[in-house]
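P.,

For your records, the input lines for the assembly:
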Amino acid sequence: MAKNDAISERGKQDVIITRIFDAPRELVWKAWTDPKHFKRWWGPKDFTSPYCKIDFRVGGKYLNCMRSPEGKDYWSTGIYKEIIPLERITYTDSFSDAEGNVVSATHYGMSADFPLVTLVTVTFEDYGGKTKMTLSHVDLPAGEMSEQTGAGWNESFDKLAESLK
Amino acid sequence: MRRDVFQAIADPNRRTIIGLLANQKLTVNAVAEHFPISRPAVSKHIKILIECGLVVVHRQGRERYCEARLEKLNEVSDWVEQYQKLWEQRFDRLDEYLKELQKKEKKHGEK
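Structure tokens returned:
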């Protein structure tokens, strides 16, 4: 079985990051949920975020743009799935065009092996005056797709599930 | 239908099949013996694994042997690695931004 374990280890497909931020939890929460703040850090180093729209409620959508130093725009969109104020946000994440239509990673010249829809969960905890933030970014298990559309996800997500068939 | 490595490992039976084949080449029958599910069901999983590029089948005499192509699994870590880097960079900026924000708040507070 040792080899099987090695396989599951190699096949591990989650991004898990924990960071401590020297700021109160309310402020870190704001940085994620208020477009004004969100735009200030969403792009990685040397990127800017020229556009950010957040409909911050369960079932609400967001649409963000990161602009590379060369001026190339990368849009992403998704739907908020779970919101527990100051504790947890779960949302789906996909590449999109500027209108918020989901596109494959190949649209941006990336590998077709990028999953079309991924799931991001961010949790916030007090940590002695600081904030411990944990991010998990996982591929949406294939079986969950239909369950979630059945749970009242909006029609754009139904379309997405359709396109995955 | 998606046919990539993510699809291949999305199913626990397929993960087990990959595990079995990681140790040795096996015939479809030999693979099927390890499962309570029907042989056609096992065949279907193997077919998906072939389509995903994780398994190849060789004919030896009358038998068909399945062999795992484990290098394909490395593709899984590719997008994970890229996202990992992206998030780390974002959080570096978030860290800076939070410090900046608090400095400003302090200044305003002093006024």
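Two observations worth noting. The beta strands of chain A are 14-21, 48-54, 61-67, 73-84, 88-96, 118-127, 130-139. Chain A has one domain: 14-164.

Regards
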